[in-house]
Write a structure and sequence with these properties.
alpha/beta; two-stranded antiparallel sheet; 377 residues; globular; single chain; 15% strand
Amino acid sequence: MEELYYVETQYYTFAHPPNELILESGEKLGPITLAYETYGELDKNKSNAILILHALSGDAHVAGYHKGDRKPGWWDNMVGPGKAFDTNKYFVICSNVIGGCKGSTGPSSINPATGKPYGLDFPVITIKDMVNAQRYLIDYLGIEKLLCVAGGSMGGMQVLQWTVSYPERVRSAIPIATASRNKAMQIAFNEVGRQAIMSDPNWNRGDYYDKTPPNTGLAIARMVGHITYLSEESMEQKFGRRLRQKEKYGYDFSIDFEVESYLHYQGLSFTQRFDANSYLYITKAIDYFDLANGYGSLFEAFSNSTHIKFLVISFSSDWLYPPSQSKEIVRALEANGIDVTYREIESSYGHDAFLLEAEEQTRIISSFLKYVYEEIK
């Protein structure tokens, strides 16, 4: 049996007034706290650090257990001793993004100007702002150059932004199941989720922290989002048209089908661990993301990243961020003469495959990291 790997969340606070972080919108934010966790040991040259970046509903707890937890971190099948991101070799860092609700400064944090939670007074943030905040953490840890930045979905967007904003700080990058920008359909699904939250009477224009939270709206947002994380094949295999603990239809609006029950469970459980305002802010950051913005083209965006080695991974059944969007990134990298490896993994899990397809990802990522690390040793 695998030995339990315990970890504690740490906190770093910076950007104290008058040195606030200037956001992409032009607004200022500070002080800022980032919640983060580290795994493994930093080598004497500080050359083995890997920054893992989380998706929309993730947090700093990427692997191992907190004392008292029944479940490990969200990517425990990939991070740890002997795993893809091998903590016997590498020093792994994961932080909760700004705008989040798991220890980093976000809309549920106390606004020092009022002594109350920010709510909608929290400024709109972008993927670039998230990355700029992470750079302060990497500076604080004394790491000049990251061996790798890696992540899936929104985490992959942050990976791409790191390679464009701070190319001199990155040796390699692994963007997984992601895109250089959202297309109309992806924005549309996010907007339905936001409207579900904002239509909940308990949302109260974001001012609900001492009241009943908008859990109905947030649960619906999660249900809509979760459908996009699966594939038609995986849903059919998992649920089909099976009825829930009954032999025939109820002919009413109670829960008849197993898939309905599953979505209700996903929505309810999400409300117990996530903040509705954070969902609004983070999905908006995802929608605003466009790596080519300010450069004219994706090719130009990567023009200063020519020394970085890339491993781009997609999944065959991912219809939220399909392989075609990963291939668009690969073409822009290749046009710049950048060292890029592309792998499309056959999977029926849809977008969630980056969290579930551990065996194939481990084989590919372990080999890639070994190649990158041995080159500098």
